[in-house]
Amino acid sequence: MLNPRQRATIQSNRERIRQDRLRTVILIRFSAGITTFAATTCMWREMHEAPPGTVDRQGRTPVHGADVRAEFPPDVDFSTVVAIADAPDASQVGGARLYRLLDRPALGLMDAPDRILVFLERLR
């Protein structure tokens, strides 16, 4: 188990890593017959498909078919998200690249998750 000093160091390093790597994307939500758009920031990383049988540093098998791995804050609700648009503003969603969610594990070293990894597949 991590002590409070170790936790603070990890959080500080995570914030430093996120500083210049944040990207604004639009979450497209559909609920009760209504489509809404919400802007949020995340760390965005284009993926290259890994060969079958490979594992990442944590020993997990990479999600095959994922075009993007995005890291979101833990407070983002994905329950009604149907797609994510790679656009900085909701007015630009029409011409933006769209992605569907493949997987969204919540991760963290603390008692509660401190980030959500979202694996995305490009639609257009």
End-to-end gap: 44 Å
Total number of helices: 1
Domain module count: 1
Strand content: 35-45%
The total count of strands amounts to: 7
Helix content: 10-25%
Order of helices and strands: HEEEEEEE
What structural category arises from helix and sheet content?
mainly beta
Give the strand order of the largest sheet, numbering strands 1, 2, ... along the chain: 1-2-3-7-5-4
Q: Give the oligomer, counting copies of the same chain as homo and different chains as hetero.
A: single chain
Specify the overall morphology.
globular
Low-pLDDT runs = none
Mean pLDDT figure: 86
Largest sheet: 6 strands, antiparallel, barrel
Rg on CA atoms, Å = 16 Å
Brief description of this entry?
This protein is mainly β.
Name the descriptors.
124 residues, 1 helix, 12% helix, 7 strands, 6-stranded antiparallel barrel, mainly beta
Strand-helix topology:
Layout (H helix, E strand, L loop, with lengths): L3 H15 L3 E10 L2 E13 L21 E5 L8 E5 L12 E6 L2 E2 L7 E8 L2
Antiparallel strand pairs: 1-2, 1-4, 2-3, 3-7, 4-5, 5-7, 6-7
Q: Care to describe what's here?
A:
It is a single chain. The protein is mostly beta strands and 124 residues long. The chain has one domain (22-51, 59-122). Helix content is 12%, strand content 40%. The protein has one helix at 4-18, and strands at residues 22-31, 34-46, 68-72, 81-85, 98-103, 106-107, 115-122. Strands 1-2-3-7-5-4 form a six-stranded antiparallel barrel. β1 and β2 form a beta hairpin. The mean pLDDT is 86.
